[in-house]
Specification:
The complex is a heterodimer of chains A (457) and B (337). Chain A has 457 residues and is mainly alpha-helical. Chain A contains 19 helices and no strands. With 337 residues, chain B is mostly helical. A two-stranded antiparallel ribbon of chain B has the order 1-2. The chains are: A mainly alpha (457), B mainly alpha (337).
Chain lengths: 457, 337
């Protein structure tokens, strides 16, 4: 079983007490909102940590895999739009089959033609011809799909299943994309790989942004179904009202007036329903986080994990020992991306909407990497800790900065231009904090706050 | 014949001139990235923000000069503020090297760690810029906007198609030529330039021959500062200044540097133009061009556009991926990695 050292217990205690602290200062609702995002960040961080910390494979495509997870949430949970399917379903189907044929043709050419020069020429001809044919079917189909009721639909919709399935599907979507990227790019040296994965994730997001038939593009998909009850249903459910009344019975019994008591109870129910919803999310997310954490740790301690560390520490030696480095790199890249995809689906589930234009590298790639570095690469608890601490400071940076600025400029008048300007730019101070945290950690604790355990056998 | 001329003008107006000016901006940026890569040996993610910083200082001083009624007549005031921006950018580069990068260089850290460090620097500079100037779009070009307007050209030549020439485009091209000439002259002819090339080629051998590494690094940052500030300002002058754009610009810049062959200055310049032209050519709707050049019986009905303009950024990465697959060291053999 997993055993924690003393300082690791300390880290866990710090994490928990942070949320309790915020709960008392800013309210439990705020605390739970931060907690939910922290858990999702922790899962993303674990995904990156698996490929970077275990095997040294860099993955700067976090944003793209998150977006793929988000797409999965839409496709799984949105009810199917039959008119769109009627309008363009066949066209899309035909172009998909043609695409499969094209890919098979290219693979066949790669196998059959041995001469490198001829191979390039054949491939180019086949690809250009194939794309022209596919375009013919595809453009007609997408246009007619996007014309179906563009104000509320205009895309194919999804399968209408419960959104919770999308967490698994999201993993598979991201894994599929990661497989293609890995096949293309994993041979490159690490900093090249970083740039290429960053670029490809940018391509993935721009496809989601502009292929409206698939993801509704910049028009966004709203109103995704929840895996947890809605506040309004809770407020009318008898068991929930009884539960709240029971929990606050001492407080309610002190109020003598009946209408007053009803008023207080109503307020409590409204507050309580919001907290209950967030709490159910938190429970669901925590379950996923623990499952992933358990298996990630198991994998790290297994012979496979040992092989990964061997590959990371000395690729040439591992290769000489007969380990297939290329294959293992691909495997771990795909696994890491799949976990990020799960987190992406969870993120969309939490928000209830899918906004492709919201995926920006600063927020969804670089911050995640700061979490990995700060937490400690190669240590799963470190990854979770990094996710929690960085997301927490990302959110709490704004109130903290406002407080500090007010303290520093206390001597200035409230209308002072400098003071106003500083208070206006409070949201940007978080970037400063993030950069400074990253630089300080890299300088003084390069292995992260909770470093990887060195295992001797 | 007239149709043929018209079609040429269409190409010039919508592809060649914008391509050259955008390509020049990318080339200057990519040259900076390549310098850092060749001498300091890491991928500098902060380069976009350094460009943005230079542009910001230039804008601040442009505003100052404008408020003092100091100007250059028909030329944009920004040109007057540019030297101050350059000095500030150089100082920024040297400060970031002294306080951040130098430590890892002495430690001989692996390139990935330095790339991470540069991400930290990117965040810090990004925050400083936003705190100082905000996130709004800023237009700071003044003076005469057009050298030739489309309408003037039409009247002058009697053709159907107009050719517009913005002064910012001409300035971009002229400054780029000037700067590139100077950089290559510096690398080829001066002693410092030669020592830089030697250092980039083989560090140990260069150290053995008595080249002072600190001096080489110092000179590199000066050159990077100049290139970054000029590239950033020209981009802002041509389009408009918006802090977030520069983060998005980092990726095409990296693509240019890698496509050309990273570590090779000449390759970076060529890569910049390759990326710029392919972005514009792949996303341009050629209908107008074909209407002029083809007989009316086989005129195209659609837009004749390979990809919609939404995919502009995607094009540069697709090229990057294709180049890396076919020729990993870039067009001009850069450092083989």
């Amino acid at each position: 079983m997993i055993k924690f050292e003393r300082y690791e217990w300390l880290a866990i205690t710090i994490m928990i007490s942070l949320f309790i602290f915020v709960g008392f200062i800013q309210g439990w609702s705020v605390s739970l909102v931060i907690l939910n995002m922290c858990i999702i960040s922790a899962i993303m961080t674990m995904g990156v940590n698996i490929s970077w910390g275990y095997a040294g494979v860099i993955n700067f495509g976090v944003m793209g895999f998150l977006a793929m997870g988000g797409l999965a949430a839409v496709i799984v949970s949105y009810p199917p739009i039959t008119e769109s399917w009627k309008a363009g379903g066949t066209g899309i189907g035909v172009s998909f089959i043609l695409l499969v044929i094209l890919v098979t043709a290219v693979m066949y050419i790669n196998k059959a033609v041995t001469d490198k020069r001829n191979r390039y020429i054949f491939n180019t001809i086949v690809i250009i011809f194939g794309i022209l044919v596919i375009r013919h079917f595809y453009l007609d189909a997408t246009e007619s799909i996007e014309d179906v009721n563009p104000a509320i639909a205009g895309f194919l919709g999804g399968l209408g299943l419960p959104i919770i399935f999308s967490w698994i599907v999201g993993g598979f979507f991201a894994a599929g994309v990661a497989f293609i990227i890995g096949k293309v790019a994993l041979g490159l040296r690490s900093d090249y790989l970083a740039i290429v994965t960053l670029g490809i994730s940018e391509i993935v997001v721009s496809v989601l942004k502009h292929e409206e038939w698939l993801s509704r593009g910049v028009k966004n998909v709203i109103g995704l179904k929840r895996p947890v009850p809605y506040e309004i249903n809770l407020q009318n459910a008898d068991w929930f009202i009884n539960l709240i009344a029971y929990l606050n019975s001492s407080k309610l019994n002190n109020i003598i007036d009946v209408s007053d008591r009803q008023q207080v109870l109503n307020n409590l129910i409204i507050d309580g329903s919001g907290i209950f919803v967030k709490l159910s999310y938190a429970v669901l997310f925590l379950i996923v986080m623990f499952i992933i954490f358990y298996f990630a740790n198991k994998a790290q301690l297994s012979p496979w994990g040992r092989m990964m560390r061997a590959i990371r520490d000395n690729e040439i030696a591992a290769n000489a020992m007969g380990k297939d480095v290329v294959k293992q790199h691909l495997i771990i890249f795909v696994i890491g991306a799949a976990i990020v995809g799960v987190a992406g689906a969870m993120l969309v589930t939490l928000d209830g909407l899918f906004t492709p234009s919201g995926y920006r590298p600063l927020r969804f790639t670089f911050i995640i990497w700061i979490m990995v570095i700060v937490g400690g690469s190669g240590n799963n608890l470190g990854a979770i800790f990094g996710g929690f601490v960085i997301w927490f400071s990302w959110i709490e940076a704004a109130p903290l900065t406002t407080f500090i600025i007010n303290q520093i400029t206390v001597g200035l008048e409230p209308t002072n231009a400098l003071k106003l300007h500083l208070l206006e730019s409070v949201p940007y101070f978080r970037y400063l904090f993030m950069g400074l945290i990253l630089l300080l950690i890299l300088r003084y604790r390069p292995k992260g706050i909770i470093p990887e355990k060195v295992r001797h056998s | 014949m007239i149709d043929f001329l018209n079609s040429i003008i269409v190409l010039l107006n919508f592809i060649i001139i914008p391509g050259i000016s955008y390509g020049s901006q990318l080339a200057l940026g990519a040259l900076g990235v390549t310098f850092v890569y060749a001498i300091l040996r890491f991928a500098n993610f902060a380069h976009g923000e350094i460009m943005s910083f230079g542009a910001m200082i230039t804008i601040l001083f442009t505003w100052f000069f404008q408020s003092q009624n100091i100007g250059l007549g028909i030329l944009p005031t920004a040109l007057l503020a540019l030297p101050i921006g350059i000095v500030a950018t150089i100082i920024l580069c040297i400060i970031s090297d002294k306080f951040v990068f130098q430590y890892y260089r002495y430690q001989k850290s692996v390139p990935v760690v330095l790339a991470m460090v540069s991400i930290g620097v990117m965040f810090v500079i990004n925050a400083i810029i936003r705190i100082i100037i905000g996130t709004e779009t800023i237009k700071f070009s003044d003076g005469q906007k057009f050298i030739m307007k489309a309408k003037q050209f039409k009247i002058m030549t009697g053709l159907n198609e107009g050719l517009a020439l913005k002064s910012s485009q001409v300035i971009t091209i002229l400054i780029t030529i000037l700067l590139l000439t100077f950089t290559f002259w510096f690398l080829q002819k001066t002693k410092t330039g030669k020592s830089m090339r030697a250092f980039s080629d083989n560090e140990d051998l260069a150290l053995l021959s008595g080249i002072n590494p600190d001096r080489v690094v110092f000179t590199t940052w000066i050159i990077v500062g100049v290139l970054a500030c000029v590239a950033g300002t020209l981009y802002g002058l041509d389009k408009s200044y918006k802090p977030i754009i520069y983060l998005n610009l980092v990726l095409p810049i990296f693509a240019s540097a890698i496509v050309g062959g990273i570590g090779s200055p000449f390759g970076a310049v060529v890569g910049g133009y390759v990326i710029a032209f392919s972005e514009i050519m792949v996303t341009y709707a050629y209908k107008k061009f074909f209407v002029y050049i083809l007989p009316s019986s086989i005129e195209p009905t659609g837009l004749v556009q390979l990809l919609s303009t939404d995919y502009k950024f995607a094009v540069s990465f697709s090229i990057l991926v294709i180049v890396l697959l076919i020729r990993p060291s870039g067009i001009f053999k850069g450092r083989v990695l």
